[in-house]
Design a protein that fits this description.
The protein contains 16 helices and 20 strands. By secondary structure, it is α/β, with parallel strands linked by helices. Helix 10 packs parallel to helix 11. Bound molecules: S-adenosyl-L-homocysteine.
Length: 466
Protein backbone atom coordinates (compact mmCIF):
# COMPACT_ATOMS: atom_id res chain seq x y z
CA UNK A 1 0.00 0.00 0.00
CA UNK A 2 1.71 3.18 -1.16
CA UNK A 3 -1.10 5.43 0.04
CA UNK A 4 -2.57 5.16 3.48
CA UNK A 5 -6.27 6.07 3.69
CA UNK A 6 -7.32 8.45 6.45
CA UNK A 7 -10.20 10.84 7.01
CA UNK A 8 -8.82 14.34 7.43
CA UNK A 9 -10.53 16.85 9.65
CA UNK A 10 -11.17 19.90 7.43
CA UNK A 11 -14.16 21.59 9.04
CA UNK A 12 -13.32 25.31 9.35
CA UNK A 13 -9.88 24.86 7.78
CA UNK A 14 -8.59 26.31 4.49
CA UNK A 15 -8.39 24.33 1.29
CA UNK A 16 -6.79 26.23 -1.57
CA UNK A 17 -7.31 25.49 -5.24
CA UNK A 18 -5.51 26.99 -8.18
CA UNK A 19 -7.33 26.88 -11.52
CA UNK A 20 -10.58 28.01 -13.11
CA UNK A 21 -11.55 25.43 -15.72
CA UNK A 22 -13.26 22.03 -15.92
CA UNK A 23 -10.71 20.22 -13.74
CA UNK A 24 -11.03 22.87 -11.04
CA UNK A 25 -14.82 22.67 -11.17
CA UNK A 26 -14.75 18.86 -10.85
CA UNK A 27 -12.62 19.09 -7.70
CA UNK A 28 -14.77 21.88 -6.29
CA UNK A 29 -17.87 19.72 -6.57
CA UNK A 30 -16.25 17.25 -4.20
CA UNK A 31 -14.72 19.85 -1.90
CA UNK A 32 -18.04 21.64 -1.50
CA UNK A 33 -19.33 18.56 0.33
CA UNK A 34 -16.97 19.45 3.19
CA UNK A 35 -17.23 22.14 5.83
CA UNK A 36 -13.83 23.58 4.85
CA UNK A 37 -13.24 27.21 3.78
CA UNK A 38 -12.38 26.97 0.12
CA UNK A 39 -10.21 29.57 -1.58
CA UNK A 40 -9.88 29.56 -5.38
CA UNK A 41 -7.26 31.47 -7.39
CA UNK A 42 -7.89 31.85 -11.12
CA UNK A 43 -7.27 34.70 -13.52
CA UNK A 44 -10.12 33.68 -15.83
CA UNK A 45 -12.61 31.58 -13.84
CA UNK A 46 -15.32 29.56 -15.55
CA UNK A 47 -18.87 30.95 -15.17
CA UNK A 48 -19.85 28.17 -12.73
CA UNK A 49 -16.92 29.08 -10.51
CA UNK A 50 -17.85 32.77 -10.71
CA UNK A 51 -21.32 31.79 -9.57
CA UNK A 52 -19.97 29.88 -6.55
CA UNK A 53 -17.96 32.96 -5.67
CA UNK A 54 -21.00 35.22 -5.90
CA UNK A 55 -23.02 32.79 -3.77
CA UNK A 56 -20.31 32.94 -1.13
CA UNK A 57 -19.65 29.21 -1.31
CA UNK A 58 -16.00 29.81 -2.14
CA UNK A 59 -13.62 32.76 -1.71
CA UNK A 60 -12.72 33.59 -5.30
CA UNK A 61 -9.65 35.68 -6.18
CA UNK A 62 -9.49 36.62 -9.86
CA UNK A 63 -5.76 36.37 -10.43
CA UNK A 64 -3.05 33.76 -10.58
CA UNK A 65 -1.83 32.32 -7.29
CA UNK A 66 1.10 34.07 -5.59
CA UNK A 67 3.44 33.38 -2.76
CA UNK A 68 1.61 33.76 0.58
CA UNK A 69 -1.79 32.57 -0.77
CA UNK A 70 -1.48 29.05 0.62
CA UNK A 71 -0.48 29.92 4.17
CA UNK A 72 -2.41 27.97 6.81
CA UNK A 73 -4.05 25.71 4.21
CA UNK A 74 -4.57 22.06 5.02
CA UNK A 75 -4.77 20.93 1.43
CA UNK A 76 -3.81 22.39 -1.89
CA UNK A 77 -5.04 21.43 -5.36
CA UNK A 78 -3.27 22.43 -8.54
CA UNK A 79 -5.93 22.20 -11.27
CA UNK A 80 -4.72 24.58 -13.95
CA UNK A 81 -4.66 21.99 -16.73
CA UNK A 82 -1.22 23.41 -17.54
CA UNK A 83 1.85 21.48 -16.37
CA UNK A 84 4.15 24.46 -16.01
CA UNK A 85 1.61 26.51 -14.07
CA UNK A 86 0.75 23.50 -11.89
CA UNK A 87 4.44 22.98 -11.08
CA UNK A 88 4.86 26.65 -10.21
CA UNK A 89 1.88 26.84 -7.83
CA UNK A 90 2.64 23.41 -6.31
CA UNK A 91 6.12 24.62 -5.36
CA UNK A 92 4.61 27.63 -3.55
CA UNK A 93 2.06 25.43 -1.76
CA UNK A 94 4.69 22.95 -0.61
CA UNK A 95 6.86 25.76 0.69
CA UNK A 96 3.89 27.12 2.63
CA UNK A 97 3.25 23.78 4.31
CA UNK A 98 0.17 22.38 2.57
CA UNK A 99 -0.36 18.82 1.39
CA UNK A 100 -0.33 19.07 -2.40
CA UNK A 101 -2.34 17.32 -5.06
CA UNK A 102 -1.76 18.01 -8.73
CA UNK A 103 -4.69 16.90 -10.84
CA UNK A 104 -3.75 14.01 -13.13
CA UNK A 105 -0.19 13.91 -11.81
CA UNK A 106 0.09 11.13 -9.31
CA UNK A 107 3.86 11.23 -9.14
CA UNK A 108 4.16 14.81 -7.89
CA UNK A 109 1.14 14.62 -5.59
CA UNK A 110 1.45 14.08 -1.87
CA UNK A 111 -2.06 12.61 -1.71
CA UNK A 112 -4.80 11.40 -4.01
CA UNK A 113 -8.51 12.02 -3.82
CA UNK A 114 -10.45 8.74 -3.71
CA UNK A 115 -13.72 7.96 -5.44
CA UNK A 116 -16.34 8.77 -2.82
CA UNK A 117 -19.69 7.28 -1.93
CA UNK A 118 -21.33 9.96 0.15
CA UNK A 119 -23.90 9.02 2.74
CA UNK A 120 -22.72 11.59 5.21
CA UNK A 121 -21.79 10.82 7.99
CA UNK A 122 -21.07 7.51 6.30
CA UNK A 123 -18.38 8.02 3.67
CA UNK A 124 -16.85 5.27 1.60
CA UNK A 125 -13.53 6.17 -0.04
CA UNK A 126 -12.28 3.95 -2.86
CA UNK A 127 -8.70 4.11 -4.05
CA UNK A 128 -6.67 2.10 -6.52
CA UNK A 129 -3.40 4.09 -6.19
CA UNK A 130 -4.17 5.43 -9.65
CA UNK A 131 -3.86 1.95 -11.13
CA UNK A 132 -7.44 1.26 -12.14
CA UNK A 133 -9.79 4.24 -12.12
CA UNK A 134 -12.33 2.16 -14.06
CA UNK A 135 -12.40 -0.35 -11.26
CA UNK A 136 -12.85 2.39 -8.66
CA UNK A 137 -15.78 3.76 -10.65
CA UNK A 138 -17.37 0.31 -10.94
CA UNK A 139 -17.04 -0.29 -7.19
CA UNK A 140 -18.48 3.12 -6.51
CA UNK A 141 -21.45 2.47 -8.82
CA UNK A 142 -22.05 -0.86 -7.12
CA UNK A 143 -21.99 0.67 -3.65
CA UNK A 144 -24.15 3.61 -4.69
CA UNK A 145 -26.74 1.09 -5.70
CA UNK A 146 -26.42 -1.05 -2.63
CA UNK A 147 -26.37 1.54 0.13
CA UNK A 148 -29.80 3.05 0.72
CA UNK A 149 -29.83 6.78 -0.10
CA UNK A 150 -31.33 7.34 3.31
CA UNK A 151 -28.34 5.73 5.01
CA UNK A 152 -26.86 9.09 6.03
CA UNK A 153 -30.05 10.22 7.65
CA UNK A 154 -30.41 6.82 9.32
CA UNK A 155 -26.87 7.03 10.64
CA UNK A 156 -27.45 10.49 12.11
CA UNK A 157 -30.64 9.36 13.81
CA UNK A 158 -28.96 6.11 14.84
CA UNK A 159 -26.06 7.96 16.46
CA UNK A 160 -28.40 9.65 18.90
CA UNK A 161 -29.71 6.20 19.79
CA UNK A 162 -26.45 4.44 20.53
CA UNK A 163 -26.99 4.80 24.23
CA UNK A 164 -30.44 3.24 24.27
CA UNK A 165 -29.20 0.29 22.22
CA UNK A 166 -26.77 -0.60 24.99
CA UNK A 167 -29.68 -2.39 26.67
CA UNK A 168 -29.16 -5.09 24.05
CA UNK A 169 -26.38 -7.55 24.83
CA UNK A 170 -23.13 -6.84 23.00
CA UNK A 171 -22.37 -8.93 19.94
CA UNK A 172 -24.71 -10.70 17.60
CA UNK A 173 -27.95 -9.34 19.10
CA UNK A 174 -26.76 -5.77 18.82
CA UNK A 175 -25.41 -6.30 15.32
CA UNK A 176 -28.70 -7.84 14.24
CA UNK A 177 -30.54 -4.82 15.57
CA UNK A 178 -28.42 -2.35 13.61
CA UNK A 179 -28.58 -4.43 10.43
CA UNK A 180 -32.34 -4.55 10.74
CA UNK A 181 -32.49 -0.79 11.31
CA UNK A 182 -30.12 0.26 8.52
CA UNK A 183 -31.25 -2.12 5.82
CA UNK A 184 -34.86 -3.06 6.56
CA UNK A 185 -37.00 -1.14 9.03
CA UNK A 186 -35.07 2.16 8.77
CA UNK A 187 -35.20 2.80 5.00
CA UNK A 188 -38.86 1.78 4.96
CA UNK A 189 -39.74 4.20 7.77
CA UNK A 190 -37.79 7.10 6.25
CA UNK A 191 -39.49 6.57 2.94
CA UNK A 192 -42.88 6.79 4.63
CA UNK A 193 -42.23 9.51 7.23
CA UNK A 194 -38.78 11.09 6.80
CA UNK A 195 -36.48 11.68 9.76
CA UNK A 196 -39.38 11.42 12.20
CA UNK A 197 -40.15 8.02 10.74
CA UNK A 198 -36.59 6.93 11.40
CA UNK A 199 -36.74 7.81 15.11
CA UNK A 200 -40.09 6.14 15.55
CA UNK A 201 -38.88 3.06 13.70
CA UNK A 202 -35.79 2.89 15.88
CA UNK A 203 -37.82 2.97 19.04
CA UNK A 204 -40.27 0.32 17.89
CA UNK A 205 -37.48 -1.84 16.55
CA UNK A 206 -35.51 -1.60 19.76
CA UNK A 207 -38.51 -2.72 21.81
CA UNK A 208 -38.98 -5.64 19.50
CA UNK A 209 -35.33 -6.67 19.63
CA UNK A 210 -35.19 -6.34 23.41
CA UNK A 211 -38.14 -8.70 23.63
CA UNK A 212 -36.60 -11.36 21.39
CA UNK A 213 -33.19 -10.88 22.97
CA UNK A 214 -34.67 -11.76 26.33
CA UNK A 215 -36.08 -14.89 24.80
CA UNK A 216 -33.09 -17.11 24.11
CA UNK A 217 -33.52 -19.46 21.19
CA UNK A 218 -33.16 -23.18 21.78
CA UNK A 219 -33.19 -26.36 19.73
CA UNK A 220 -34.63 -29.72 20.79
CA UNK A 221 -33.46 -32.58 18.58
CA UNK A 222 -36.38 -34.89 19.11
CA UNK A 223 -36.99 -38.52 18.22
CA UNK A 224 -40.52 -38.94 16.91
CA UNK A 225 -40.37 -42.74 17.18
CA UNK A 226 -41.54 -45.14 14.49
CA UNK A 227 -44.94 -43.59 13.90
CA UNK A 228 -47.36 -44.63 16.63
CA UNK A 229 -47.99 -41.42 18.61
CA UNK A 230 -48.22 -43.46 21.81
CA UNK A 231 -44.60 -44.41 21.36
CA UNK A 232 -43.53 -40.79 21.76
CA UNK A 233 -41.67 -40.01 24.95
CA UNK A 234 -43.27 -37.59 27.40
CA UNK A 235 -40.34 -35.27 26.79
CA UNK A 236 -40.99 -35.31 23.05
CA UNK A 237 -44.65 -34.47 23.63
CA UNK A 238 -43.78 -31.62 25.90
CA UNK A 239 -41.29 -30.23 23.41
CA UNK A 240 -43.91 -30.37 20.64
CA UNK A 241 -46.32 -28.65 22.94
CA UNK A 242 -43.97 -25.72 23.45
CA UNK A 243 -42.44 -25.44 20.00
CA UNK A 244 -42.43 -22.21 18.01
CA UNK A 245 -41.04 -23.94 14.96
CA UNK A 246 -41.13 -27.64 14.04
CA UNK A 247 -38.73 -28.80 11.34
CA UNK A 248 -39.67 -32.36 10.41
CA UNK A 249 -38.70 -35.20 8.11
CA UNK A 250 -40.85 -37.05 5.64
CA UNK A 251 -41.09 -40.17 7.81
CA UNK A 252 -42.68 -38.40 10.78
CA UNK A 253 -46.33 -39.48 10.92
CA UNK A 254 -49.21 -37.06 10.49
CA UNK A 255 -50.71 -38.04 13.86
CA UNK A 256 -47.52 -36.91 15.57
CA UNK A 257 -47.33 -33.63 13.67
CA UNK A 258 -50.84 -32.89 14.87
CA UNK A 259 -49.55 -32.85 18.43
CA UNK A 260 -47.45 -29.76 17.77
CA UNK A 261 -48.57 -26.46 19.27
CA UNK A 262 -51.20 -24.97 17.01
CA UNK A 263 -49.34 -21.70 16.49
CA UNK A 264 -46.11 -23.47 15.62
CA UNK A 265 -44.57 -22.89 12.21
CA UNK A 266 -44.34 -26.31 10.55
CA UNK A 267 -41.48 -26.78 8.09
CA UNK A 268 -41.26 -29.95 6.03
CA UNK A 269 -37.71 -30.74 5.01
CA UNK A 270 -38.86 -34.03 3.46
CA UNK A 271 -35.59 -35.92 3.48
CA UNK A 272 -35.87 -39.10 1.46
CA UNK A 273 -33.33 -41.85 0.96
CA UNK A 274 -32.92 -41.29 -2.75
CA UNK A 275 -35.50 -38.78 -3.92
CA UNK A 276 -35.24 -35.00 -3.98
CA UNK A 277 -34.92 -33.40 -0.59
CA UNK A 278 -33.83 -30.29 1.23
CA UNK A 279 -30.06 -30.34 1.48
CA UNK A 280 -28.48 -30.91 4.88
CA UNK A 281 -26.87 -27.47 4.70
CA UNK A 282 -30.24 -25.90 4.11
CA UNK A 283 -31.72 -27.80 7.06
CA UNK A 284 -28.84 -26.67 9.30
CA UNK A 285 -29.38 -23.11 8.12
CA UNK A 286 -33.11 -23.24 8.86
CA UNK A 287 -32.59 -24.61 12.36
CA UNK A 288 -29.98 -21.97 13.23
CA UNK A 289 -31.86 -19.10 11.62
CA UNK A 290 -35.04 -19.70 13.59
CA UNK A 291 -33.31 -20.40 16.90
CA UNK A 292 -31.12 -17.30 16.47
CA UNK A 293 -34.28 -15.25 16.29
CA UNK A 294 -35.24 -16.54 19.71
CA UNK A 295 -37.52 -19.38 18.63
CA UNK A 296 -37.86 -22.70 20.40
CA UNK A 297 -37.12 -25.03 17.51
CA UNK A 298 -38.06 -28.69 17.56
CA UNK A 299 -36.09 -30.66 15.02
CA UNK A 300 -38.27 -33.72 14.69
CA UNK A 301 -36.73 -36.88 13.27
CA UNK A 302 -38.20 -40.31 12.70
CA UNK A 303 -37.27 -42.99 15.20
CA UNK A 304 -34.29 -42.07 17.32
CA UNK A 305 -32.38 -38.99 16.20
CA UNK A 306 -29.07 -40.66 17.00
CA UNK A 307 -29.62 -43.51 14.54
CA UNK A 308 -28.86 -42.68 10.89
CA UNK A 309 -30.14 -39.18 11.48
CA UNK A 310 -27.18 -36.96 10.48
CA UNK A 311 -27.59 -35.56 13.94
CA UNK A 312 -23.96 -34.57 14.41
CA UNK A 313 -23.97 -32.23 11.44
CA UNK A 314 -26.93 -30.39 12.90
CA UNK A 315 -25.36 -30.25 16.34
CA UNK A 316 -22.19 -28.76 14.89
CA UNK A 317 -24.14 -26.02 13.15
CA UNK A 318 -26.09 -25.30 16.34
CA UNK A 319 -22.94 -25.21 18.47
CA UNK A 320 -21.17 -22.98 15.96
CA UNK A 321 -24.03 -20.52 16.30
CA UNK A 322 -23.72 -20.63 20.09
CA UNK A 323 -27.27 -21.89 20.56
CA UNK A 324 -28.36 -24.25 23.32
CA UNK A 325 -29.74 -27.66 22.41
CA UNK A 326 -30.89 -30.95 23.85
CA UNK A 327 -31.31 -34.42 22.40
CA UNK A 328 -34.57 -36.19 23.17
CA UNK A 329 -34.16 -39.86 22.25
CA UNK A 330 -36.90 -41.80 20.54
CA UNK A 331 -37.76 -45.40 19.79
CA UNK A 332 -35.79 -46.50 16.79
CA UNK A 333 -37.37 -48.50 13.95
CA UNK A 334 -35.43 -51.65 14.92
CA UNK A 335 -36.98 -51.66 18.42
CA UNK A 336 -40.47 -51.13 17.06
CA UNK A 337 -40.01 -53.80 14.39
CA UNK A 338 -38.75 -56.55 16.70
CA UNK A 339 -41.47 -55.74 19.19
CA UNK A 340 -44.01 -56.20 16.47
CA UNK A 341 -42.78 -59.68 15.54
CA UNK A 342 -42.46 -60.74 19.16
CA UNK A 343 -38.69 -61.04 19.15
CA UNK A 344 -35.73 -59.58 20.98
CA UNK A 345 -32.83 -57.82 19.40
CA UNK A 346 -30.50 -59.85 21.63
CA UNK A 347 -31.07 -63.28 23.13
CA UNK A 348 -29.05 -65.39 25.53
CA UNK A 349 -27.32 -68.17 23.69
CA UNK A 350 -28.16 -66.79 20.27
CA UNK A 351 -26.61 -63.37 19.85
CA UNK A 352 -24.83 -61.21 22.39
CA UNK A 353 -24.59 -58.28 20.05
CA UNK A 354 -26.74 -56.69 17.42
CA UNK A 355 -25.80 -54.48 14.52
CA UNK A 356 -27.67 -51.51 13.14
CA UNK A 357 -26.70 -51.26 9.49
CA UNK A 358 -27.60 -48.96 6.69
CA UNK A 359 -28.31 -50.38 3.25
CA UNK A 360 -26.88 -47.36 1.57
CA UNK A 361 -24.71 -44.45 2.53
CA UNK A 362 -23.55 -41.30 0.78
CA UNK A 363 -21.57 -43.34 -1.73
CA UNK A 364 -24.29 -45.84 -2.64
CA UNK A 365 -24.75 -49.35 -1.24
CA UNK A 366 -22.92 -49.54 2.05
CA UNK A 367 -20.22 -52.10 2.68
CA UNK A 368 -19.95 -53.91 5.99
CA UNK A 369 -18.10 -56.72 7.68
CA UNK A 370 -20.12 -59.36 5.81
CA UNK A 371 -17.93 -62.24 6.99
CA UNK A 372 -18.69 -61.50 10.64
CA UNK A 373 -22.37 -61.10 9.86
CA UNK A 374 -22.50 -64.35 7.92
CA UNK A 375 -21.85 -66.43 11.06
CA UNK A 376 -24.75 -68.38 12.56
CA UNK A 377 -26.95 -66.61 15.07
CA UNK A 378 -25.99 -63.06 14.06
CA UNK A 379 -28.72 -60.46 14.14
CA UNK A 380 -28.77 -57.16 12.29
CA UNK A 381 -31.37 -54.49 11.68
CA UNK A 382 -30.84 -53.06 8.21
CA UNK A 383 -32.17 -49.52 7.74
CA UNK A 384 -32.79 -48.07 4.30
CA UNK A 385 -32.31 -51.58 3.03
CA UNK A 386 -35.12 -52.14 0.54
CA UNK A 387 -33.21 -51.08 -2.54
CA UNK A 388 -30.01 -52.61 -1.28
CA UNK A 389 -31.64 -56.01 -0.58
CA UNK A 390 -30.17 -57.79 -3.57
CA UNK A 391 -26.73 -56.40 -2.82
CA UNK A 392 -26.93 -57.43 0.85
CA UNK A 393 -28.21 -60.86 -0.12
CA UNK A 394 -25.37 -61.39 -2.59
CA UNK A 395 -22.67 -60.27 -0.19
CA UNK A 396 -23.88 -62.45 2.69
CA UNK A 397 -24.21 -65.57 0.58
CA UNK A 398 -20.81 -64.90 -0.94
CA UNK A 399 -19.33 -64.77 2.55
CA UNK A 400 -20.84 -68.10 3.50
CA UNK A 401 -24.05 -67.16 5.30
CA UNK A 402 -26.63 -69.95 5.60
CA UNK A 403 -29.21 -69.33 2.84
CA UNK A 404 -31.93 -70.43 5.28
CA UNK A 405 -31.14 -67.59 7.70
CA UNK A 406 -34.48 -65.95 8.46
CA UNK A 407 -35.09 -62.38 7.39
CA UNK A 408 -38.15 -60.43 8.37
CA UNK A 409 -39.03 -57.22 6.60
CA UNK A 410 -41.23 -54.92 8.66
CA UNK A 411 -42.86 -52.09 6.77
CA UNK A 412 -44.38 -49.16 8.66
CA UNK A 413 -43.48 -50.65 12.03
CA UNK A 414 -45.88 -49.62 14.82
CA UNK A 415 -48.39 -48.12 12.38
CA UNK A 416 -51.84 -49.50 11.68
CA UNK A 417 -51.03 -50.08 8.01
CA UNK A 418 -47.91 -52.10 8.87
CA UNK A 419 -47.08 -55.24 6.89
CA UNK A 420 -44.57 -57.94 7.65
CA UNK A 421 -42.79 -60.15 5.17
CA UNK A 422 -41.18 -63.28 6.56
CA UNK A 423 -38.58 -64.78 4.29
CA UNK A 424 -35.05 -66.22 4.19
CA UNK A 425 -31.76 -64.96 2.93
CA UNK A 426 -32.03 -67.19 -0.14
CA UNK A 427 -35.46 -65.85 -1.00
CA UNK A 428 -35.17 -62.22 0.11
CA UNK A 429 -35.10 -61.22 -3.51
CA UNK A 430 -37.28 -61.52 -5.45
CA UNK A 431 -39.71 -61.89 -2.51
CA UNK A 432 -39.16 -58.31 -1.39
CA UNK A 433 -39.68 -56.83 -4.85
CA UNK A 434 -42.79 -58.92 -5.31
CA UNK A 435 -44.22 -57.89 -1.97
CA UNK A 436 -44.53 -54.31 -3.22
CA UNK A 437 -43.91 -52.68 0.16
CA UNK A 438 -44.05 -48.91 -0.38
CA UNK A 439 -43.61 -47.55 3.13
CA UNK A 440 -40.44 -47.28 5.19
CA UNK A 441 -39.21 -50.77 5.92
CA UNK A 442 -36.53 -52.33 8.04
CA UNK A 443 -34.89 -55.70 7.36
CA UNK A 444 -34.34 -57.84 10.42
CA UNK A 445 -31.58 -60.24 9.52
CA UNK A 446 -31.45 -63.43 11.59
CA UNK A 447 -34.93 -63.06 13.04
CA UNK A 448 -38.25 -64.71 12.12
CA UNK A 449 -41.61 -63.65 13.55
CA UNK A 450 -42.41 -65.60 16.72
CA UNK A 451 -45.88 -66.36 15.40
CA UNK A 452 -46.08 -66.98 11.70
CA UNK A 453 -49.78 -66.13 11.43
CA UNK A 454 -50.79 -62.81 9.89
CA UNK A 455 -47.51 -62.24 8.15
CA UNK A 456 -46.72 -62.46 4.47
CA UNK A 457 -44.39 -65.27 3.59
CA UNK A 458 -42.31 -65.87 0.53
CA UNK A 459 -44.62 -68.75 -0.19
CA UNK A 460 -47.73 -66.50 -0.31
CA UNK A 461 -45.93 -64.25 -2.71
CA UNK A 462 -44.98 -67.13 -4.95
CA UNK A 463 -48.61 -68.21 -5.04
CA UNK A 464 -49.81 -64.71 -5.74
CA UNK A 465 -47.36 -64.39 -8.60
CA UNK A 466 -48.61 -67.54 -10.27
N1 LIG B 1 -33.67 -42.34 12.91
C1 LIG B 1 -34.50 -43.36 12.31
C2 LIG B 1 -33.90 -43.96 11.08
C3 LIG B 1 -33.76 -43.00 9.96
S1 LIG B 1 -33.20 -43.79 8.52
C4 LIG B 1 -34.79 -44.42 13.37
O1 LIG B 1 -34.17 -44.41 14.42
O2 LIG B 1 -35.66 -45.26 13.12
C5 LIG B 1 -34.69 -44.15 7.69
C6 LIG B 1 -34.95 -45.62 7.70
O3 LIG B 1 -35.48 -45.99 8.95
C7 LIG B 1 -35.99 -46.06 6.71
O4 LIG B 1 -35.45 -46.24 5.42
C8 LIG B 1 -36.40 -47.38 7.30
O5 LIG B 1 -35.47 -48.37 7.03
C9 LIG B 1 -36.33 -47.08 8.77
N2 LIG B 1 -37.64 -46.73 9.37
C10 LIG B 1 -38.01 -45.58 9.91
N3 LIG B 1 -39.27 -45.65 10.39
C11 LIG B 1 -39.68 -46.89 10.15
C12 LIG B 1 -40.89 -47.60 10.41
N4 LIG B 1 -41.93 -47.02 11.03
N5 LIG B 1 -40.96 -48.89 10.02
C13 LIG B 1 -39.95 -49.49 9.42
N6 LIG B 1 -38.78 -48.86 9.14
C14 LIG B 1 -38.66 -47.59 9.50
Amino acid sequence: MQHFPIFLSVAGRRIVLSGGGEAAMAKLRLLLKTEARIAVYADAPHADIEKLGLEGKIILTRRALRRGDVLCAALFYAANEDDAEDARVAAIARAEGALVNIVDNLEDSAFITPAIVDRDPVTVAIGTEGAAPVLARAIKADLEERLPVTLGLLARVGKSFRHAVETLPLGRKRRDFWADYYFKAGPKAVEANGAKGASAALEALLDQHIMTAQKEGHVDLVGAGPGDPELLTLKARKALDEADVVIYDRLVSREILELARREALMINVGKEGFGPSTTQDEINRLIVEHAAQGAHVVRLKAGDPTVFGRLDEEIEAIEDAGISYRIVPGITAASAAVAQIGQSLTKRGRNASVRLLTGHDMKGFADHDWRALAKDGEVAAIYMGKRAARFVQGRLIMHGANPDTPITVVENASRPESRVLSTTLAELEPALSRSDLHGPAILLYGLAPRHAAEVLTSLDLKEAAQ
